[in-house]
Amino acid sequence: MNHARPQRRAISKAMMLMLTIAWAGSPIAAEEMLHWQGAWVRSLPPGAEVTAAYGTLMNHGAEVVSIANINSTLGNEAQMHDVLSEGDQRRMVQLPSVDIAPGESLVFQPGGRHIMLLGVTETPAEGSDIELCAESAAGTRTCTQAKVRRQAPEHHDAHSGHHH
Description:
It is built from two helices and ten strands. By secondary structure, the protein is α+β, with helices and mostly antiparallel strands. It is globular and about 45 Å long.
């Protein structure tokens, strides 16, 4: 009978380890690893059908997260875009997905990587909130409320650098 107890403890520890691994891979845990900061949407004139959204998506987890889709309550479609410079020409390209390494951030900012919101049918009032969600390739989702503004908040300028 002395052998039964150590075996139970071993099984118990193994079960706890499996539960911990299962929990770490769950959507709840993954959502907690991704965090939006400073999200905002550029206001648009009445009748315009396209605008852009910006902000920073941080990966606090230990694994690379691949952002495969962006959704918003504004417009019919949201796409990740980047601006590429070729000589003195600049062009926009759509990004099918973007990886965020552990401890790193995905920055969407004016003049660079950004989120295009297409098919806007109703012009949101300046100061209103728009839901912005990022979805990973694994199916996890993290959302935030992005304020509609004419220009970037003062603390998000080109000289602010990275804050850790």
